[in-house]
Amino acid sequence: MAIPGGDETIAIKGLFTGEGLSWLTTTMGDNYIGFPPLATVLPILLAVGVAEKSGMLAAAVRIAFGKSPKWLLPYAVGFVGVVGSIMADSAFVIIAPLAALVFKAAGRHPMAGLIGGFAATGAGYSTSIVPTSLDALFAGITTSVMETLPNTDYTAVNPVSNYYFNIASSIVLAVIAGFIIDRLIEPNMVRKGVPREYANASSSGLAREYQAPDSPYGDASATSDDSGEDDATEIKAELEPEEKRGLIWSLVAALLLTAVILFSVLIPNSPWRNEDGGFLPESPLLSSIVFIVFAYFMLMGVVYGIVVHTVRSMNDLVKMMSQSIIDMMSFLILAFILGQFIALFNWTGIGSWIAVAGASGLEAIGLTGFAAVIGFMLLASLLNLFIISGSSMWTLMAAVFVPLFSLLGYEPAFIQAGFRVGDSATQVITPLNPYMIVLLGLVRRYEPNAGLGTVISRMFPFVIPFWLAWAVLLGIWFLFDLPLGPGNGIRL
């Protein structure tokens, strides 16, 4: 099969042949170690683990809620929820119950905060104003599948390749989430007479089953006591003076690190510049994004932990990072499977064949513009109802669609941005989402007879507005050919 852009051809190989079996048995370890996200995701997760387990991230969330006036609370919940992916899956069991608590303290309906916090966290999970491990994961997968098109000249994808788009997405989705919470969810809770107080403790059994043990920020899913009153030790919206000092010093440390980075970047003949003396489209600076993100989270987490005494010795750091490794065991296992899949797709040439055939088919029917991208996003949203793991779904889809759209003239980073839209919006309405049962346990604190259908029905008002707004935003980027991130555009 001939690959566009060059004279060379690629032979389609079969796995179930002598050559194929020999390839698999001799390269299995290399396929795993060579899975690109391993090198980018693991360091970031280690650093984020320290920032989380020291209590720094939870304290930042609490101060964001605590400083918000009553009228601004829905938008604060929307913003914190949308950017909550910094904390990975922990966001689902921290943000929603904390939002309910601060809503109640402000005299607003706690159920609105609970539902809104969960919806914003889930439906906006693929975006954030800060590069996260998810950005590194997506970038690694995107880069690996482009090996099927060796003749394609494209801009390298890194964890900040969608950064500008992510910032805009976070702001837009936060505003939309806040509006929905304020104008739709809370009035609906009041109109239906949903209780504002906990029911009997015996009705909160599901919540007990899904607790976040040994958390420095308290038990996000603990239940009320027998009297039905709030457990004062459950979650504290107000920061202790020591925690405030910890945040201040961690911010000072971040500013000092920023000054060091700026100095090292701006000096003449900086080693972080490329051969032309610049930074775009590729440079050692952009290749160091994983290190920079690691340094920020690690430094801020350590400084905060020292101030609040959650980090007393190197042994505490080792324990936090060890727990992070335990938390990511499922990813390490999944990476083994995905690494074999990506390598298999590249070796057999099937990915190249599908990409060439698919691109030719779309060109034949004239479907090569933004309408094709819309179709791709709709497919991602549909598959998201059945494949909850974003890394698994992106591996499956990227192997086909990234090369396909590249042959149509689009940068891999642009298709990755399109996947973000489809991947998140429908995540909060699928019963296969394991955190839906966690939310159900929290809802049953107030409504003992609530079922999964009740929870899902309250998520629906967020799904279509999020999807449409995100798609329109991507359409604006497409129409005006705006940069998605440093050095990454729309078209090849």
Automatic annotation (TrEMBL):
<feature type="transmembrane region" description="Helical">
    <location>
        <begin position="32"/>
        <end position="51"/>
    </location>
</feature>
<protein>
    <submittedName>
        <fullName>Aminobenzoyl-glutamate transport protein</fullName>
    </submittedName>
</protein>
<feature type="transmembrane region" description="Helical">
    <location>
        <begin position="163"/>
        <end position="181"/>
    </location>
</feature>
<feature type="transmembrane region" description="Helical">
    <location>
        <begin position="328"/>
        <end position="347"/>
    </location>
</feature>
<feature type="transmembrane region" description="Helical">
    <location>
        <begin position="353"/>
        <end position="378"/>
    </location>
</feature>
<dbReference type="Pfam" id="PF03806">
    <property type="entry name" value="ABG_transport"/>
</dbReference>
<feature type="transmembrane region" description="Helical">
    <location>
        <begin position="246"/>
        <end position="267"/>
    </location>
</feature>
<feature type="transmembrane region" description="Helical">
    <location>
        <begin position="72"/>
        <end position="103"/>
    </location>
</feature>
<feature type="region of interest" description="Disordered">
    <location>
        <begin position="205"/>
        <end position="232"/>
    </location>
</feature>
<feature type="transmembrane region" description="Helical">
    <location>
        <begin position="455"/>
        <end position="480"/>
    </location>
</feature>
<keyword id="KW-1133">Transmembrane helix</keyword>
<feature type="transmembrane region" description="Helical">
    <location>
        <begin position="385"/>
        <end position="405"/>
    </location>
</feature>
<feature type="transmembrane region" description="Helical">
    <location>
        <begin position="287"/>
        <end position="307"/>
    </location>
</feature>
<feature type="transmembrane region" description="Helical">
    <location>
        <begin position="425"/>
        <end position="443"/>
    </location>
</feature>
<dbReference type="GO" id="GO:1902604">
    <property type="term" value="P:p-aminobenzoyl-glutamate transmembrane transport"/>
</dbReference>
<dbReference type="GO" id="GO:0015558">
    <property type="term" value="F:secondary active p-aminobenzoyl-glutamate transmembrane transporter activity"/>
</dbReference>
<dbReference type="InterPro" id="IPR004697">
    <property type="entry name" value="AbgT"/>
</dbReference>
<keyword id="KW-0472">Membrane</keyword>
<keyword id="KW-0812">Transmembrane</keyword>
